[in-house]
Amino acid sequence: MPLKMSPFGCWGLPAALLALFCCPGSGETFEVHMYPEQLVVEPGGSTLINCSTSCALPDTSGLETTLTKSLVASGTQWKQYVVSNVSQDTIIYCYFTCSRKQKLKSLNVSVFYPPKEVLLKLKPTRVAVGGSFTIECWVPNVAPLESLTLTLLRGKEAMHNKTFRTMALAPQEATVTHNATAHKEDGHHNFSCRADLDLRSLGGDIIHGVSEPQTLKVYGEGESPEGGGGREHSSPIP
Ligand SMILES: *[C@@H]1O[C@H](CO)[C@@H](O)[C@H](O)[C@H]1NC(C)=O
Ligand SMILES: *[C@@H]1O[C@H](CO)[C@@H](O)[C@H](O)[C@H]1NC(C)=O
Ligand SMILES: *[C@@H]1O[C@H](CO)[C@@H](O)[C@H](O)[C@H]1NC(C)=O
Ligand SMILES: *[C@@H]1O[C@H](CO)[C@@H](O)[C@H](O)[C@H]1NC(C)=O
Ligand SMILES: *[C@@H]1O[C@H](CO)[C@@H](O)[C@H](O)[C@H]1NC(C)=O
Ligand SMILES: *[C@@H]1O[C@H](CO)[C@@H](O)[C@H](O)[C@H]1NC(C)=O
After folding, report:
1. What pLDDT shows up at residue 90?
2. Residue 166 belongs to a domain
3. What is the pLDDT confidence band of residue 170, given thresholds at 50, 70 and 90?
4. Which residues line ligand 4 (CB under 6 A)?
5. In this model, does residue 213 exceed pLDDT 90?
6. pLDDT score recorded for residue 215
7. Do 155 and 206 belong together in one domain?
8. What's the domain range around 75?
9. What pLDDT is stored for residue 165 in this prediction?
10. 80 lines ligand 1 (CB under 6 A)
C-alpha cells in the first residue's frame, strides 16, 4: 500500500481513528471563552454568563454548575445563561465540543457580604484632656474578611487602620480597637469608622460603608466630668 497523506496529516490511518488517537496537535484547534472571567456576587444574587468558542460549528456545548441555570440566548458560537441564587463560592464550567474534541473553561464565583452596618463606640464618651479613651469599630456579617480594611477617622484624618489577612469562609464580625489620648481639639471633630471591602482582585469594585459620626466630650483640668452640656458653650477655663 502506497504511503498516502491523509487530510489529517498522518500516514494511512482511517480518518475516524486519526481524529481519536493520532496526532493530538492536528485537526481544528479551538478555544472556549467565558464572560465574565471572574465574578463576585451578593448571596442570592444572579448573573449573566456568556460562553463562546472560536469553533465554527460546535457539536455540543453546555454549562456545568450546581446552581440554578437557564439559557437566555444563543448563537452558533455562543450561549448566554443566567445563573441564580448563588449562596457560596463555587466554580462554573463551560464546555464546547468541536470535531470530537472537548474543551472546558472555568469561572470562579465568589460570594461577598457587604459592610451594611458599621458601628462605632467611644469609651468613655467624656474624657479629660490628656486622658485615654478607646475607639471601637465593628462590622457584623462581612465577607470575604481578607478583602476588608477598617479605618478609624478623626474628622477627615485617618488615625488607625486594620486590614484583615485571615481567610474566612463564612461571613463574620470584624472589629478594630484603638486607644488614644484626648486632645482639646478632639472635642471639635467627629469620630467615624470606614469599612472598605476591596473586591477588585475578585472581579468586583470597592464597597464602602461608614458609621454614624460620634463626638467626644473633652473637658479641661479642673472642669467637672459631670458638668452639664451647657458648660461646653461657656467661656474657656483660664
Ligand atoms: C456572547 O459572546 C460572543 C463572543 O464574544 C458574542 O459574539 C455574543 O454577541 C455574546 N452574546 C451576548 C448576548 O452578549
Ligand atoms: C436559594 O438557595 C438557598 C440556599 O441554597 C435555598 O435555601 C433557597 O431555597 C434557594 N431559593 C431559590 C428561590 O431557589
Ligand atoms: C479559581 O479557584 C481555584 C481554586 O480555589 C484557584 O486555584 C484558581 O487560582 C482560581 N482561579 C482564578 C482565575 O482566580
Ligand atoms: C493604613 O495605614 C497605613 C500606615 O498608617 C497606611 O500606609 C495605609 O495606606 C493605610 N491603608 C489604608 C487602606 O488606608
Ligand atoms: C487599650 O487600653 C485598655 C485599657 O487601658 C487595654 O486593656 C487594651 O488592651 C488596650 N487596647 C489596645 C488595642 O491597645
Ligand atoms: C458632626 O456630625 C454631626 C451629625 O452628623 C454634624 O451635624 C456636625 O456638623 C459634625 N461636626 C463636624 C465638626 O463635622
Report:
1. 95
2. yes
3. confident
4. 149, 151, 158, 161
5. yes
6. 95
7. yes
8. 15-21+29-111
9. 80
10. yes
Task: Tell whether 168 and 213 lie within a shared domain.
Answer: yes
Statement to judge: residues 131 and 96 lie in one domain? no
- Which ligand has the minimum distance to the alpha carbon of residue 213? 6
Instruction: Indicate if the pLDDT at residue 13 is higher than 60.
Output: no
Which atom of ligand 4 is the closest one to the Cα of 161? Answer: 1
Does one domain contain both 43 and 126? no
Strand order, beta sheet including 90-98: 38-41, 101-111, 90-98, 60-64
Which residue minimizes the CA distance to atom 3 of ligand 6? 213
CA of 132, nearest ligand number: 5
Distance 190 CA to ligand 6 centre (A): 6
From the CB of 102, is ligand 2 less than 6 Å away?
Answer: no
* Model confidence band, residue 222 (pLDDT cutoffs 50, 70, 90): low
Pocket lining: 87 vs ligand 2, CB cutoff 6 Å: yes
Contacts 24+ apart (CB under 8 A), 197-202: 197/112, 197/114, 197/115, 197/142, 197/147, 197/148, 198/147, 198/148, 198/149, 199/40, 199/110, 199/112, 199/147, 201/147, 202/38, 202/39, 202/40, 202/108, 202/110, 202/112, 202/144, 202/147
Q: How far is the CA of 214 from the centre of ligand 6 (A)?
A: 9
Q: What is the pLDDT of residues 123-160, one digit of tens each?
A: 999 999 999 999 999 999 999 999 999 999 999 999 99
